[in-house]
Amino acid sequence: MFTLSLEPLEAEALKAKVINPQSGGFVAFEGWVRNHNQKKEVTELHYEAHEKLAVQVGNAIMQDAMNKFDINLAYCCHRVGRLAIGDMAIWVGVSSDHRKAAFAACEYILNQTKAKVPIWKNEFYQNGESGWVEANL
């Protein structure tokens, strides 16, 4: 499942969505807002999304991952709105019988989300400027 959130992401609550007694492996990725990008000091980010399309594309990626990898459950949540330095911007979690599939699926979901889901990042800089940023895979 793929969701967007205006509220801060809570890793333990998100992890609970992919816990499965059949699974021997669990992998999670947390993407945090850092204080720099391309030699500029970042003060905050604003994420915007086309909500309906983002959820539709995100859920298609999740279904694709379920079909491509031998995994039991997967979940991805991306923040939207204003984020401060250190806030979690994206969380991806995958459970599977074995770790190899969980690692591969987690990386796939993250990369596909960054490449395909209509979410836009506006960075705000220490010097008072701001700018839209392309996804870096």
From TrEMBL:
<dbReference type="GO" id="GO:0030366">
    <property type="term" value="F:molybdopterin synthase activity"/>
</dbReference>
<dbReference type="Pfam" id="PF02391">
    <property type="entry name" value="MoaE"/>
</dbReference>
<dbReference type="InterPro" id="IPR003448">
    <property type="entry name" value="Mopterin_biosynth_MoaE"/>
</dbReference>
<comment type="similarity">
    <text>Belongs to the MoaE family.</text>
</comment>
<keyword id="KW-0501">Molybdenum cofactor biosynthesis</keyword>
<protein>
    <recommendedName>
        <fullName>Molybdopterin synthase catalytic subunit</fullName>
        <ecNumber>2.8.1.12</ecNumber>
    </recommendedName>
</protein>
<comment type="pathway">
    <text>Cofactor biosynthesis; molybdopterin biosynthesis.</text>
</comment>
<comment type="subunit">
    <text>Heterotetramer of 2 MoaD subunits and 2 MoaE subunits. Also stable as homodimer. The enzyme changes between these two forms during catalysis.</text>
</comment>
<dbReference type="InterPro" id="IPR036563">
    <property type="entry name" value="MoaE_sf"/>
</dbReference>
<dbReference type="GO" id="GO:0006777">
    <property type="term" value="P:Mo-molybdopterin cofactor biosynthetic process"/>
</dbReference>
